[in-house]
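Researcher:
Attend to C-alpha cell order:
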Amino acid sequence: MSVPMNGRTKKEHSLVKPYQGTGMTIPSWDFSGSTMVTTSFIRITPDQQSRMGGLWNKINQKRLQYTVDALNSIN
C-alpha cells in the first residue's frame, strides 16, 4: 500500500483484495514470469526451483516522499 506523507492512501498505487480485475489483470499493475494472481492472493513465484516473477505499478509516483507498507508470507 502506498501512502503519501500527507497520510492519504493512493488507491492506484495500492493492492487490496480482491486482487483481480477483469480476467487475469490487476488495474494499474503489470506482472510477469511465474506470477499468479487470484482474488485472494498474489504469488510472485511458485514453490519450485528456478522460477522468477515480478509485479510493478504502471502509474508514475509523482510525490518525492511516500511510505510503502508490505506484508510478505513465505511458506
Q: What stands out?
A: The two ends are 22 Å apart (CA to CA). The mean pLDDT is 82. The chain has one domain: 1-75.
